[in-house]
Amino acid sequence: MISDLELMELHVNVLFRHDSENRLIAVNEPPYGAAPRIFIGATRMGSIVRYSNSLDKSTIEKLDQVIGANPGAHPGKIIKALSIDHLLSNVWTGPAYVFPDVRDRTYSRAIKITHENKEILKSQFPYTYEDFEYKQPCFVIIEDNIPVSICCSARKTSKADEASLFTHEDYRGRAYGADVAKAWAAEVQIQGRIALYSTSKDNLASQSVARKLQLAQYGTDIHIS
Fold it and tell me: N-acetyltransferase domain spans which residues (predicted)?
């Protein structure tokens, strides 16, 4: 069975592109925007820390001293140390989850989107349509002849995929999000990869979906930009 720390390792590699020294280069999805200056993935078994390749050696040495052996315990001190030499723009934190085995999809109302039917996305999800090559597998639920709920791969590697889930406001409260997410996760698992899901600490609706799906929280992300 895969450990929480191993899941966090998969997670950070899905989220960001790295250089040969394991430093963060960019977000792992088009248009490959800037990665945070620091990523901390805290689990019960320990933490994974990754620095941006934009940080100089002296800054990293300062941060290593502050972080020490327990990275998740001192976010305030880390932010203070980084802000001495850098103007910070954002601190993001939230839970990270993994899907259980959901490969039985017989219950699902979700429709798989392929190159043959991807025109379904164009009206309601134009960005997913444009980047479809990178977003598979992708599933939607159709209501009133339009796709109202979608789950696709936001970012992925050969070992894991990170979910992107959205339901239009007028169609929430009908369990569409949970249903379409299960269909997506099942397809990811059938293809031999691990299905991951993360969200911000302020996104209570997304956390509610995670509870409905009975996802297991394996850690907490901290992104400092």
Answer: 100-225
CA distance 52 to 68: 18
Residues 6+ apart with CB under 8 A from 75: 40, 91, 93, 222, 224
Closest CA to 12 of 159, 200, 183: 159
Cα separations in angstroms, 207 against 165, 178, 180, 211: 12, 11, 16, 6
Name the percent of the chain lying above pLDDT 70.
Answer: 90
Instruction: Residue 68: count other Cβ atoms within 10 Å of its Cβ.
Output: 10
What is the enclosing helix (H) or strand (E) of 209? helix 204-212
pLDDT of 169-206, one tens digit each?
999 989 999 999 999 999 999 999 999 999 999 999 89
Token digits of residue 125: 């999800």
Alpha carbon 26 to its chain centroid, in Å, reads 14
- What's the Cα-to-Cα distance from 15 to each of 33, 107, 118, 203, 223, rounded to whole Å? 11, 30, 25, 19, 11
Of 113, 37, 45, which Cα lies nearest the Cα of 82? 37
Tell me the whole-structure pTM to 2 decimals: 0.91
Assess whether pLDDT exceeds 80 at residue 89.
no
pLDDT digits (tens, 9 = 90+) for 136-158: 999 999 999 999 999 999 999 99
